[in-house]
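Progress against Task 2.4 (sequence-to-structure conversion) is shown through the following example record, which the project officer requested during the mid-term review.
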Amino acid sequence: MEHTLQDYLFDLRGYLVLENAVDAVHLQELNTALDEFPKLEWGEWHGNVQHFDNNGAAGVELQNIVEGGEPFERLIDHPSWIPLLRHYCGEERSYVEGLYIDECFASVRRTGGFFPIHSGGYHGAARGQYRYQEGVFRCGQVNILLALTDIGPGDGGTMVVPGSHKSHLPHPLAAEYSGITPMDALPGAVEVHLKKGDALLFVDGLAHGASARTNPGERRVTIFRYGVSWGSTRHGYEYSHTLLDRLSPERRAILQPISPRRPPR
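Structure tokens generated for the chain above:
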């Protein structure tokens, strides 16, 4: 089977940078929605969106952000990345072909925030596995990190260890950079700089994290994690009937690929 340069680089590195994935008008709508979002305490809800982050240094994470307004709904099947996701983690050419959003959130990180290294091919969970076999990709989860602000040196950019999604060995120094230590100086790790509107596509089995933010201001991103159609949400979030009822059939099929089967009332 003939493959593209994107396929080659994704297989080699475990990630791709999609430049100018989202246009300026859409970006402004996303940022305005976050500007107007009420300040929530940890664990507090606004509608069907919750302030929930599992690492105190990460900043503010608004989980289930697809419920945060129409601009976020447009990210579900955005044409800049949806064909690639169907190709890499959508069980292409199988009887369960399709996608599911495993997790979706907006992240706002300020000075001092970072995220420690995690994942990697060694002892990786099947949920985030990288797999290519018999001419097809069978990745368990592929993520889209969309930059809502420019992310350059000092901005707390995402860091990756290229090729680590296929590693058979643990990183010898990973333990020193886990927990409360940023992975800025981890050997083999590179920081991915993005312009606002660029998207980072990466398999979740790639060892990744984020550098320490030293600049003032905010680093804003949305992260949508896509998996196979038979998956379930990581944190147990459910989509509201209000959202599902107004979505196009194509978008609803990604949020709810398998409709509940219930006996008649």
